[in-house]
Design a protein that fits this description.
The chain is mainly beta and 84 residues long. Helices cover 0% and strands 62% of the residues. It contains no helices and 6 strands.
């Protein structure tokens, strides 16, 4: 029987890409190195490495903001991922 030596599963994950989580269409959480690009009544635009994320919706609001975590509440209607 062969033995498997140490495997680093995290080495293949590019840390420049964010982790995006949604809770239905009412909350969106983005984790990673983040920068708010635009914040309007119609959408919030977030840069993370080589990716631009645009979150569209009704009554969307930044509920939590730090350099590595953003929480957006509201009725989220669309999310776009744009490679820069």
């Amino acid at each position: 029987m062969k033995k498997i030596k140490d495997i680093n599963l995290m080495s293949d994950i590019k840390t420049s890409y964010p982790i995006v989580q949604t809770e239905q269409n009412k909350k969106l959480i983005i984790e990673g190195k983040l920068l708010i690009d635009e914040y309007t009544d119609e959408y919030i635009s977030v840069k993370s490495g080589e990716l631009l994320i645009k979150i569209y919706g009704d009554s969307i609001d930044l509920k939590y903001l730090s350099p590595e975590n953003i929480t957006i509440d509201g009725i989220i209607t669309r999310v776009e991922y744009i490679k820069l």
